[in-house]
From TrEMBL:
The keyword Cytoplasm is assigned to this record: no
Organism: Pseudoneurospora amorphoporcata
Keyword line: Membrane, Transmembrane, Transmembrane helix
Domain Fatty acid desaturase residue range list: 175-411
UniProt cross-references to Pfam families, sorted A to Z: FA_desaturase
Protein name (Swiss-Prot/TrEMBL): Fatty acid desaturase domain-containing protein
Length: 477
């Protein structure tokens, strides 16, 4: 319990999830403490009869624990109370989080900005409630899902900063201070933008379909913003939706981690290098091998058209090569490394018995960077279980499936993001990763910190081709 950290800026949903898991673990430890060895000197009558009253932060309820008997073993009454408390606590958490997502509920809270919750915005004396309410009402009329006002906020931000800045550098006047500032600010935007587009490519849009102009804008804006954020046209859709989610980190997944030793820098460099230099060829060929020729042709066309656009602007834009590099090429070069570093962290821990299981080949992160700033990207297992699940529904879905996650020995980390998972792995810092692991289920909860570290290390081992054939069967052919 001493290693579980509640960051002050966790989302409301993440705080509820982490409190639920932490209290489950705390109750397990108390139940375990009630186990007294046979013939123990401490197994006195007074110990047997002693009781302890504790409270939970979430419900405020109190429960009475009876310490173990002289015969040893876990007291069944204690275990039963603990299980009932966990079920009640989880049910209450699900109800609470579901209400936050339900526009018909008095507790409904749309996400307006990633930095502040609705209650924070309402508390600011400098922000008139009339302005906040007017913006919320206006943005709600444009967005497809009522919770997603944040996406309107971000589109306004990108079109008022990134777009005019890039156009100025490319077509009016290039200057080094402006170019560097543009790159820094865009680098700050790109994670949030990419995960907004992650929602876009899975939902086939984020704006309401009720208006013609929003349907048109929804279809067109990625062709302007994607290159400025480092994405080639439609490559995210074809690689992620049409390829990665079809293969699921299996042997035919071009971004699969199973053929690499996931805590070796040399292996990581090979992994990134393959994608970095060859995805322009690998992805179209993948579709061709699968007999999906139209998708292969489309993937190739949009990738090569993006390169042609870079060359054209490099040669003919008034800002020339310098402006093209800083506004288009540099974001492209950086993002491709970031995407693979993130995917490495998402799929670094793969179970050697059931590597096909989404529960055992991906992870869940309860952290600020992934979930507050990147649309609950930390709930990666939930996303693989249902790629069409809306981002605000991931914490609810996780709690609803908590017992299954535990039974499958799924991995849940906190206070760490995917990039730092990758960094810690490459440093072989399994003790830090073990401290970030939130134990779920009796198997993990009974581990010592050292055992958790060893358990995680076993899951980063490279699969041989023989193992891949044995574990994946026809998928490996």
């Amino acid at each position: 319990m001493e290693h579980i950290v509640f960051a002050h800026d966790l989302t409301k949903a993440d705080r509820v999830v982490l409190e639920t898991l932490a209290t489950d673990y705390s109750d397990h430890l108390k139940t375990k403490d009630s186990q007294v060895p046979p013939d123990s000197a401490y197994a006195s009558a007074s110990d047997t009869e002693a009781t302890e009253t504790t409270g939970t932060k979430e419900t405020g309820a109190t429960s009475t624990y009876t310490h173990g008997s002289a015969k040893g073993g876990v007291n069944k009454d204690v275990a039963g109370v603990s299980q009932r408390k966990s079920a009640t606590r989880t049910s209450e958490a699900i109800t609470r989080l579901s209400a936050l997502n339900d526009p018909t509920s008095p507790s409904f809270e749309p996400t307006i900005t990633n930095f502040f919750d609705l209650a924070d915005l309402q508390s600011f004396t400098w922000l008139p409630s009339s302005v906040l309410n007017a913006y919320t009402q206006w943005a709600s009329s444009l967005i497809r899902v009522p919770t997603d006002i944040l996406m309107i906020t971000h589109l306004l931000l990108y079109f008022s900063t990134t777009v005019p800045s890039a156009l100025y550098l490319l077509f009016i006047r290039f200057s080094w201070p402006h170019a560097v500032l543009h790159a820094v600010i865009n680098g700050w935007y790109v994670g949030t933008y990419t995960l907004m587009m992650h929602q876009h490519i899975h939902m086939r849009g984020i704006l309401t379909r009720d208006k013609l102009w929003t349907r048109l804008f929804d279809a067109v804006f990625p062709y302007l913003l994607d290159p400025l954020m480092g994405h080639t046209w439609n490559s995210y859709y074809y690689h992620h939706v049409k390829h990665h989610h079809v293969e699921g980190n299996g042997p035919d997944d071009l971004s699969s981690t199973i053929r690499y030793q996931r805590d070796e820098l040399s292996e990581f460099l090979k992994y990134v290098g393959r994608f970095y230099f060859l995805v322009w060829l690998d992805l179209p060929l993948y579709f061709m091998r699968k007999g999906r020729y139209v998708e292969g042709a489309k993937a190739a066309f949009w990738e090569y058209a993006s390169y042609a656009m870079y060359v054209f602007l490099w040669k003919y834009a008034p800002g020339g090569g310098k402006a093209t590099f800083w506004t288009l090429v540099l974001p492209f070069l950086v993002l491709r490394v970031a995407l693979m570093a993130g995917n490495w962290g998402q799929h670094a821990f793969v179970d050697d018995e059931e590597p096909e299981s989404d529960y055992r080949s991906s992870v869940t992160l309860v952290d600020v960077a992934s979930n507050r700033h990147c649309y609950n990207d930390g709930y990666h297992t939930s996303h693989h279980l249902n790629p069409l699940r809306h981002w605000r529904e991931h914490p609810v879905a996780f709690l609803k499936g908590k017992e299954t996650y535990a039974a499958e020995n799924a991995l849940v980390f906190h206070n760490i993001d995917y990039m730092m998972v990758t960094v810690r792995l490459l440093r072989k810092d399994y003790m830090t990763l073990a401290k970030c692991l939130v134990p779920i289920g009796e198997f993990q909860m009974n581990m010592t910190l050292e055992e958790r570290a060893a358990y995680l290390q076993r899951k980063t081992r490279r699969f041989s081709e023989e193992e891949i054939k044995a574990k994946f069967g026809k998928k490996a052919n």
